[in-house]
Design brief:
Distance between the termini: 112 Å
Largest sheet: none
Number of strands: 0
Strand content: under 5%
Radius of gyration: 34 Å
Structural class: mainly alpha
Helix content: over 70%
Length: about 375
């Protein structure tokens, strides 16, 4: 009887274990079914339905990590950030090295204006554990961080992140061109030019890199190189009006710079005469545009100084008195700088003269 009872107990135990396994398998199957349905709704942008489906899935598996994370993502899609953050913080406590969780928390903190937390979670995500292609996920996360820094005008930090990004980028033309564009937004034109040149080494027909190289050299004041790059960009894309406008200004800068090497004395003197006349016209236009325009309070005024110097600024006088070249151009540069605040933004020759003034600052 003891043996029979023992055998019966074993049979009951096996039966209960089997039923328990069947129950768990059924629960798991139901959870997976709801999760699959929720994932489809989420991918279709039906976040309300996705939230309901993911909550149903969690009824059958309350601690499932992927179910909870998907529910948090769906809540983010509905702009219910507080609820999503609660789930994500709980998940972060279980797996603080999870890249997806850190990135979602960074996005929520960015929307809430919590800069310090945003930076911390983004950096956690960059150096976190990622399934699949880790380098790709880390690169995309760093790019998100850079966009956040640029949006908050933290250009110095954005430049640092861009340098770190470029160091692990490789030579793929499209990615180098993208990094170059981000360097441009961060006002780091030197590194931007390097990225665009790297892109063109891999793909010399990359129009984004051509346009970017033209913009970077223009902003760096390397107008001879800028002219060549901008011409190439326009040949590659004749509808690139932005590059065409910069090319026109670049050519004016090269034509109107009397200090450019290789100019004959006669050519230099004629440029000075033309620049002096253009500055005088700028003063006159400013007074016509605004009755309230007055030159800066100096003695004498810019207009007085220009009028007094005008008879001396002729090609023949400049030939006999070379020292007048620098005096005339200093006045031209002063006029172009000081009329910005009171007049409309300069264009054409005036814009070119302003750029020339900038390129010779401190000389």
């Amino acid at each position: 009887m003891l043996a029979a009872l023992s055998a019966l107990a074993v049979l009951f135990f096996l039966a209960v274990t089997g039923l328990s396994n069947v129950y768990r398998a059924q629960q798991e199957s139901l959870g997976n079914r709801w999760f699959t349905r929720g994932s489809s709704e989420f991918n279709a942008g039906h976040y309300d339905d996705a939230v309901s489906d993911f909550r149903a899935a969690l009824l059958y598996s309350r601690d499932d990590y992927s179910y909870q994370f998907s529910l948090a993502e769906a809540l983010v899609g509905l702009n219910r950030s507080s609820e999503a953050q609660a789930y994500l913080i709980n998940l972060w406590g279980r797996q603080p090295e999870n890249g997806f969780v850190n990135r979602e928390l960074a996005r929520i903190c960015a929307r809430n204006g919590e800069t310090d937390k945003t930076l911390r979670y983004y950096h956690n995500a960059i150096y976190a554990t990622w399934p699949g292609d880790q380098e790709s996920e880390r690169r995309q996360t760093r790019i998100e961080l850079i966009h956040f820094l640029l949006k908050t005008n933290a250009k110095a930090q954005a430049q640092s992140e861009l340098i770190a990004l470029e160091a692990n980028l490789g030579n793929r033309a499209s990615e180098q061109a993208q990094v170059g564009s981000l360097f441009v937004q961060a006002k780091d034109y030197e590194n931007a030019l390097g990225a665009f040149q790297m892109a063109l080494k891999s793909d010399r027909h990359n129009t984004d890199a051509m346009r970017g190289a033209g913009l970077s050299t223009f902003e760096l004041g390397r107008y001879v190189l800028a002219e060549r790059c901008l011409k190439a960009a326009i040949v590659a894309n004749p509808r690139d009006t932005e590059s065409a406008s910069r090319l026109k200004t670049t050519q004016l800068v090269l034509q109107m710079d009397p200090f450019r090497q290789g100019l004959s004395g006669a050519r230099r003197n004629q440029i000075v005469v033309d620049a002096f006349a253009a500055a005088g016209q700028r003063l006159k236009s400013c007074k016509m545009q605004s009755a309230s325009f007055t030159a800066p309070v100096t003695e004498p005024t810019l207009d007085d100084t220009w009028q007094r110097m005008k008879p001396k600024i002729t090609a023949s006088r400049l030939q006999r008195h070379p020292e007048l070249v620098e005096m005339a151009m200093n006045l031209v540069f002063q006029i172009e700088r000081e009329t910005i605040a009171s007049c409309e933004m300069p264009s054409g020759t005036d814009a070119a003269l302003l750029l020339i003034a900038k390129s010779h600052e401190g000389n």
